[in-house]
Specification:
The complex is a heterodimer. By secondary structure, chain A is of the alpha/beta class. Chain A contains 10 helices and 16 strands. In chain A, strand 14 and strand 15 form a beta hairpin. In chain B, the strands form 5 sheets. Chain B has a 9-stranded mixed sheet with strand order 20-19-18-17-11-16-15-12-21, sandwiched between helices. Classes of the chains: A alpha/beta, B alpha/beta.
């Protein structure tokens, strides 16, 4: 199975690190220490190391339990996306106070000394609306700033809006909130599109939004697209009659954001509109062909025993072109996928197919590699919001 | 909504995905399957594509060579080769098992039609067993003298045509020995295959850093306005190897640096450096621009060779402190084959008129380096009169290998009282910003062949134009017994320095 990003050449064990920490400090002190540590870190000849950062990467962790994930991911990401990483962890309290840990890492095998920096800011009694002022002194100027929001992705959260104002990219994880958060994202994207050319656009309007939950679907999307690349199978997409997403969840749990995104993706790619509630899902009109397609949700068991579980267990679809019929099932299975396909006039296919399930770092890494807007994601979110609306109306 | 583009139905699910369209089901036939190229490059590249899930499920390899081998023997040899040469290290047993099942071998002579009958039977068997849907890809990984016999026998055996189309063929360099032989080879190839099915491979074009040259020039606004005779004094392109013959003696002595490196790799680098922006990155748009700029280069006439071209052959010397023998000693006999070439090329078009391109390639030079150095003109007025001697021209160096990256040299004030200036470097290193393994050139190129994308392959007119530029040099050097000898471990013969000195310039020592 493909490693979606080329493997790292070296591990973190290869790096040297210098650190500093302080309690009850000011943001400007943290910035000064970052500079000081970089000057202390030098190569074998004693020259200060060149900084190779390509971005500021802000990570908001809603609670302390997510800090290890953020720290680990930042360290792993550093070799692919050298960055100044700033982890922001709010701690409830009455009085404002800032505790900080700063580390500068060098990589001895990078000929001119790759340096990446990580600051962890634990903010007591933080004013969410003023979160940006805490971070601004720490940003490397003229670099793109990414905000990875590891918490409920409520677009109206004042902390998210505050940090979003100073960033170029926002990466949410729609898995960390209820499915209806996609509706907020869709509204935000809609308003962004509508206001796109205005000179007085609020800074938040320029923000490009990505979603690690969307990246977790990348393997399913890639494999499904590859299946329809084969032969003349793409013709069946105009004759799609039903499409079912089997979520990797218990029967009692509602459809997840990932399932909505998957249906949003397929329905927007083939051109569907006018969703209406039907038992088990929605029915949508295929705009070009005129017929209606049944999009449905169901629940399945946990998918395989791989280290990383995909957010959906399987997809099933049926399509017709003239007298020819296609029935297809793609199931997550043992770290890969299993394809079962019955097609009129063609021998039944039952085989393993590549189906990657990116882990947390990989999902973020893929989002960081994208600088422009992901129009397909945006279309899918808009369609998912429509489907959600039809389901709950 | 799926839409039709000519005959193909466009798959709307493909839009926006990182991975482009998968390669079509294919049986790949490798001629020269027991040779070095197959072991060191092709098989490791195919294995890595399999490892990364980039090969279609319906894919198979049929190797053909003279050596008598059974399928298991051939598979074992290929496994050893992948273990030894793959960038991803030793093989993954599971991946290899699935991959090896799809490898088979046919023993035969490339000039005997009966061998191709046996090959045809084996291909048909493999197609049935692995459902490769009739797509065939022929890869000529043989010495060049076998290209025409293979192509003729493929034509005779009826294995090539598919309806009104032909299957694909990949032809390794050298594509001919001169213009005449390249034209003859093209004629033979095109009697059997259509041009859009012919992939003339130059693996340099598969290198990430060579492709980045296009990105560097055409995706950045700040360099292109300076990229002309108005600001550029001259361009130096160096392809230097520290190695000697390394087991390629018989091939290299027939070929020499001019045919082995200059006609293909170096002229490709010149074309990519000097070409105009293509209207798109479709195969023919890029290749049209490359051909245009190659046609703009003034071919060196025979009588101009003493002034515009230098050749040399390495004598004894030392590399990295170790003594190394002379070329003729390595070879074991006398030879006038050039192991070093330097040329001055003039691109006679609006953008480059008056800005020469100096190119050099050689073996047993002090270090292995491939780079393009763009030297800019000095400022038109020198305000720092009393320190003018310490000023160095701005220089942009694009390093193709090793230490891939870009360096911009500019002048800065030395922090001290008074006005002292010094040249400083601004470095971009691929290794520092992208600490990930790049795919091997052959991985990218094989995938492109299977997808039918010819962008990184040379077209008939491109190959012939490149040869036509060197016809005068080939003729001038033919049969001339005197060849300058340079000590191994130096930057070539003195005549190469004189070539630059005549124009008031000098070579960089990268």
């Amino acid at each position: 199975m493909a490693p979606p990003v080329a493997p790292q050449l070296h591990t973190l064990a290869d790096t040297d690190t210098v650190r500093w920490e302080g309690k009850g400090v000011k943001a400007t002190q943290v910035g000064a220490r970052l500079l000081g540590l970089r000057q202390e870190a030098s190569d074998v000849e004693g020259f200060p190391l060149a900084r190779a950062s390509v971005m500021n990467l802000l990570v908001f962790v809603a609670d302390a339990s997510r800090e290890p994930l953020a720290t680990h991911a930042l360290d792993e990401l550093a070799l692919r996306h050298p960055a100044r990483g700033i982890i922001i962890e709010p701690i409830p309290g009455q009085r404002f106070g800032l505790d900080a840990e700063v580390a500068v890492h060098r990589h001895p095998l990078a000929s001119h000394g790759l340096v990446y920096e990580r600051a962890v800011l634990r903010v007591h009694g933080a004013d969410p609306e003023g979160m940006d002022t805490l971070v601004i002194p720490l940003l490397i100027p003229h670099l793109q700033s990414f905000l990875w929001w590891l918490g409920d992705p409520s677009i109206v959260n004042p902390g998210l809006r505050s940090l979003g104002r100073i960033c170029d990219r926002l990466i949410i994880d729609s898995k960390l909130g209820p499915a209806d958060r996609l509706v907020d994202v869709a509204l935000e994207l809609g308003s962004t599109a509508a206001l796109g050319a205005r000179a007085d656009l609020p800074s938040f309007g320029r923000l490009v939004i990505g979603d690690t939950n969307w990246m977790r679907l990348d393997g399913f999307r890639q494999t499904l697209a590859a299946i329809f690349d084969e032969g003349h199978r793409a013709e069946y997409l105009a004759g799609l009659r039903s499409f079912e997403v089997v979520g990797a969840r218990g029967l009692r749990h509602p459809a997840t954001a990932a399932e909505l995104l998957m249906l949003g993706w397929v329905s927007s790619r083939i051109g569907c509109s006018s969703p209406a509630w039907v038992d088990g899902g929605v029915s949508m009109r295929h705009d070009a062909a005129g017929h209606r397609i049944h999009f449905s949700f169901s629940a399945g068991g946990a998918a395989g025993r791989g280290a990383v579980l995909p957010p959906i267990h399987a997809i099933r679809l049926e399509a017709e072109v003239g007298r020819r019929k296609l029935q297809l099932e793609l199931t997550a299975h043992k770290g890969g996928g299993l394809l079962h396909c019955e097609e009129t006039g063609v021998a039944t296919v039952h085989r393993s197919v590549p189906l990657s399930h990116p882990n947390e770092t990989e999902a973020v890494s893929r989002e960081l590699a994208r600088l422009g807007r992901d129009r397909v994601y945006e279309d899918s979110v808009q369609a998912a919001a429509l489907i959600y609306g039809a389901l709950t109306s | 909504m799926p839409t039709r583009k000519k005959d193909a139905v466009v798959n709307p699910l493909r839009e926006g995905l990182r991975q482009e369209r998968l390669a079509a089901p294919t049986v790949m036939v490798i001629f020269g399957a027991s040779g070095d190229l197959t072991r060191k490059k092709l098989m490791p590249a195919l294995y890595n594509l399999a490892l990364e899930g980039l090969l279609p499920a319906e894919f198979a390899v049929v190797g053909m060579a003279r050596r008598p081998l059974t399928n298991p023997q051939f598979r074992d040899q290929m496994r050893e080769a992948v273990d030894q040469y793959s960038r991803t290290g030793r093989v993954n047993d599971d991946v290899w098992k699935g991959f090896a099942e799809r490898i088979s071998y046919v023993s035969g002579n490339f000039d005997q039609p009966s061998s191709f009958n046996a090959l045809k039977k084996e291909i048909e068997r493999v197609e049935r067993e692995h459902e490769t849907a009739g797509n065939r890809l022929f890869y000529c990984a043989t010495p060049p003298e076998f290209f025409i016999p293979i192509i003729k026998n493929l034509g005779r055996s009826g294995m090539v045509t598919r309806g009104r189309e032909t299957h694909r063929i990949v032809i390794e360099k050298p594509f001919g020995r001169d213009l005449q032989s390249a034209e003859a080879l093209n004629q033979e190839v095109l009697k059997v295959f259509r041009e859009r099915a012919v992939f003339r491979i130059d693996h340099y074009l598969g290198k990430e850093t060579v492709q980045n040259l296009l990105v560097f020039r055409f995706a950045n606004a700040i360099f292109e306005p300076l990229w002309s005779n108005r600001y550029v004094d001259h361009v130096q392109i160096t392809v230097a190897e520290d190695l000697g013959l390394e087991g390629r003696a018989s091939y290299y002595d027939q070929s020499g640096a001019l045919r082995d490196i200059v006609q293909n790799h170096m002229l490709q680098l010149v074309a990519l450096t000097a070409m105009e922006p293509p209207i798109s990155f479709q195969a023919d748009s890029v290749r049209d621009e490359k051909v245009k700029v190659l046609r703009s280069i003034r071919a060196i006439r025979e009588d101009e060779v003493p002034r515009l071209a230098v050749r040399g052959q390495y004598g004894r010397g030392s590399i990295g402190g170790e003594p190394v023998p002379a070329y003729r000693e390595e070879l074991g006999h006398d030879s006038t084959t050039e192991t070093f070439v330097a040329l001055r090329l003039d691109v006679e078009n609006w953008r480059w008129a008056g800005t020469p391109f100096y190119i050099r390639a050689g073996k047993r030079l002090p270090r292995r380096v491939t780079e393009i150095a763009v030297q800019f003109k000095n400022p038109p007025h020198q305000a720092f009169q009393n320190v003018a001697d310490s000023l160095e021209p701005n220089l942009l160096v694009i390093r193709i290998q090793p230490d891939e990256g870009t360096t911009l040299k500019f002048t800065a004030k030395v922090p001290a009282p008074g006005m002292r200036l010094r040249a400083v470097n601004m470095d971009f290193l691929y290794g520092a910003s992208f600490m990930a393994q790049s795919p091997e050139a052959y991985e990218r190129l094989l995938l492109d062949v299977m997808r039918g994308d010819q962008t990184l392959f040379t077209r008939r007119d491109e190959v012939e134009t490149a040869w036509s530029l060197l016809t005068g040099v080939i003729k001038a050097w033919q049969g001339v017994p005197d060849i300058p000898i340079y000590p191994a471990g130096t930057w070539g013969p003195e005549q190469a320095d004189e070539l630059m000195a005549r124009d008031g310039r000098r070579w960089r020592h990268p």
